[in-house]
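QA checklist item 7 of 12: single-chain prediction sanity check.
[x] sequence parsed
[x] length recorded as 304
[x] structure emitted
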Amino acid sequence: MKKKILIISGGISKERLISIETGKQVAKELRNNGYAVKVCEPDQNLISVIKKFKPQTIFNALHGQFGEDGYIQSILETIGIPYTHSGVISSAKAMDKEISKKIFLKNKILTPKFFTYSFNKSKKELIELIKSKLNFPVVIKPINEGSSVNVFICTKKNILNRLKSLKSYKRILIEQFIPGREIQAAIIGNRKLGAIELKPRRKFYDYQAKYNSKAKTQHIIPVDLLKKDYEKLMNITLRTHNLLDCRGVTRSDFKYYKGKFYLLEINTQPGMTKLSLVPEISAYNGINFINLIKLILNDASINK
């Protein structure tokens, strides 16, 4: 009898299209390998679809808000069917950049300096605050978005215009800009998958650099690091994964500057598209796409 897998993709976040693509890629691979697969949206019909299809496991292919911030996880917990990726609390902590960065700092994991901002200061007050705490340039970003959605590198000259784009969030993160190399590393379960370096032609590895092949971001694997530095990177990645009590696959994003790794964030629902990094890291390290999916499915659980 074929094993039944329900894939939840799409959703309402700004990463909807990426989620749909992730769902398609995972569904195609599973079907090609003898699984019975159904793909559905996380809408009002979700519970009835689950009850009718009766899957053994639910593959969470959602990205962004509602999909990787603990909300869909709390719904899936009530159903009692094992689901992939991290649980309610882990997802919520990882998605909230303020909370996760506080956890990093508490555990002596290097991360860029930051403060939260609620659009409650004059231009002069904000500029002075940035100068005293961070200095320019800075990075501004939503507290709870993924895929570099609405992330901007700002100078003193353009920050006010950039802030206008984020006003709907009410509260954002203003972060020290760290130059240097963009390196990302992945974990599956308790296993160090590996790392990859990105050299974007754009200012940084933003949404377009991630998902638009025309952006021609250069993917470098293996990463050119001394063995001891590579081991340090992977140890930080695994430690972060475990600190947040994550499960399944996670990808942590770093800047490497002057011999130091600065952890930017951890992603509990990394993409599984043709341009996604985790499948590329896995393939380089001898784990093909279907086996990566199987590893994620094998780590599916509830009540965690």
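[x] summary fact logged: The chain has a mean pLDDT of 90.
[ ] second reviewer sign-off
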